[in-house]
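Format notes (please read before filing issues)

Several people have asked whether sequences and structure tokens are stored in separate files. They are not. Every record keeps both together, in the order shown below: the sequence lines, then the token lines. Line labels are part of the format and must not be stripped during preprocessing.
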Amino acid sequence: MQLQKHTQQQRAVPSSKQQHQASAKLSWKVELRKIIDANNRNHGARDKIVSTETKKNRRDILYQAFTDLRGLGFKLDNPANLREKHFEALLEYWLSKELSSATIQKRTSVLRVFCGWIGRANMIKGLETYVEDVSKVRRVQVAQVDKSWSTNGVSYEDKLKEIEAYDIQAGAQLRMIKAFGLRRREAVCFRPIVAMRLGEESQSITVEFGTKGGRPRSIPIDNDEKREALDHACKISKVTNGHIGWENLTLEQAIKRFANIMQKFGITKKDSGVTAHGLRHEYINDQYEVITGQPSPIRGGKKEDVDAEKDLEARMRLTLDAGHSRLSITPSYFGSYRKDKRETSAIEMVNDTE
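Then the structure lines:
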């Protein structure tokens, strides 16, 4: 019995090859973490600090990329040795998995930033230079379909009633997305009393928690739906600095809970053809019609029916409402007419306000 036990102990000792493999596996992760920790807080092109969400996304994408490279046979013990051939292998792998062009562009953008960290800022060229079919890597910036709930036959009122009966916080968050066009994270973080600047006769809210890029913005309170959503949010948050999320959850846990609730009630592309983000599309398309008096392009509006000044006003106002800095982003929500020359100067005006 003793001899058998001794033999088993001997077999349990890792070989030198196994020890080297374990050391190499640990080594690249350690080196990658060092590079990320030294650089991740900085914006890739500007002198500014990036948001917590951006830092997390970068970290996740980089660890996944180097894990994928090892799976593809590239044993990079030091990620600083990344070369263009490695990126080409990754791109081919992503295309084989039929990832969306948006996902490929996002991953490529993070790798470009990483290349800047390791002294190879211009290593990755335009994606079009690596593929024969550019449609696989070119993101369409103009909406092809209306993602609003109403257009897809989903009753906001009915779904809100079901969801609020199950979870009152999730209901309050949906109300804010629908009434003000907030992003999911912004809705989960929303502090209504702070946003209205307690004690002031404010005609707008300030969205500052959970925003993309950490950019605060103001959205006017100009209809009853907005006032009702805010009143309800104040009742949920209760205290001056309270938010409409879940007190016992971290931000990431709260976002996951929101997503799980949406899935439970069929608010997914698979089940109903819409997501919670579709309410943001609803807001932007509805507001376009309020401002111009005509349906948006994606809802069948025609350029000749819309006053050009009103169209430009709507695009500028909704770009700011949505928390974007480029006028060219709004067509991804409501489509586009043929580009007007005045749009160029309008883009500069919008950027100046950020």
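For reference, the curators noted about this record: The radius of gyration is 25 Å. Confidence is low (pLDDT under 50) at residues 340-354.
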